[in-house]
């Protein structure tokens, strides 16, 4: 079975070019191409139109990549979103991550790199090229002002566990509380911090020193 890919890009020539490249890969095939998030949502009404990966342009009319990524994350969290952009600006990178994107790459990526990126995303559930990783590393390690949000002690504990390789159910077991309570902590932090994904929460926790790997060494 080939991995199903959908391309969302308002530039038809670019979408067709990317689609042609992806279809040349042995393990991937393009299901269809749409021009914006609204068209994608319409397609998603049919269960047989749901892909494994969405290659998502950021700058689009009607419904851009940021809002589309947020919608996919909320309604179809198992679908992997890879952001496509001609830019490498930090703001777009962080906003796409906060909205649920699991990867980010340039549109002018070499076909061989694109295949590696798709395989890595499918295997690891995350993919960022070197330049994006460097921006994330710099952001985490640069001194950050203390946040002004009121985060409760239990939410702080939740943030620490979010940075580990644990499911939400396992976090609930660690914190001795129900899955519904864990969902409450997560949703509360999403609202307070303006974040929409677990990756965004983890980045926030590390950057603002809520997580220290030494605290969890056995």
From TrEMBL:
The keyword Transmembrane belongs to this UniProt entry's keyword annotation: no
Keywords recorded for this protein, A-Z: DNA-binding, Phosphoprotein, Transcription, Transcription regulation
Superkingdom of the source species: Bacteria
Protein name: Two component transcriptional regulator, LuxR family
CDD domains xref list: LuxR_C_like, REC_NarL-like
Provenance organism: Leadbetterella byssophila (strain DSM 17132 / JCM 16389 / KACC 11308 / NBRC 106382 / 4M15)
Occurrences of domain HTH luxR-type (ranges): 144-209
Single GO term (MF): DNA binding
TM region(s), chain numbering: none
GO terms under biological process: phosphorelay signal transduction system; regulation of DNA-templated transcription
């Amino acid at each position: 079975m080939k991995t199903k890919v959908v391309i969302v890009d308002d530039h038809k020539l670019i979408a067709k070019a990317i689609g042609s490249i992806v279809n040349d890969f042995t393990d991937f095939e393009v299901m269809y191409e749409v021009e914006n998030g609204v068209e994608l949502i319409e397609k998603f009404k049919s269960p047989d139109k749901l892909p494994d990966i969405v290659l998502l342009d950021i700058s689009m009319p009607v419904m851009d990549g940021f809002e589309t990524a947020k919608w996919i994350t909320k309604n179809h969290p198992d679908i992997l979103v890879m952001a496509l952009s001609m830019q490498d600006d930090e703001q777009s990178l962080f906003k796409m991550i906060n909205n649920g994107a699991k990867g980010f790459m340039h549109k002018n990526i070499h076909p061989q790199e694109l295949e590696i990126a798709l395989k890595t995303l499918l295997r690891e559930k995350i993919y960022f090229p070197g330049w994006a990783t460097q921006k994330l590393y710099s952001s985490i390690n640069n001194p950050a002002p203390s946040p002004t949000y009121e985060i409760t002690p239990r939410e702080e504990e939740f943030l620490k566990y979010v940075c580990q390789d644990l499911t939400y159910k396992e976090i609930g077991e660690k914190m001795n509380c129900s899955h519904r309570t864990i969902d409450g902590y997560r949703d509360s932090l999403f609202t307070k911090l303006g974040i929409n994904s677990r990756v965004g929460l983890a980045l926030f926790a590390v950057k603002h020193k809520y997580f220290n790997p030494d605290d969890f060494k056995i």
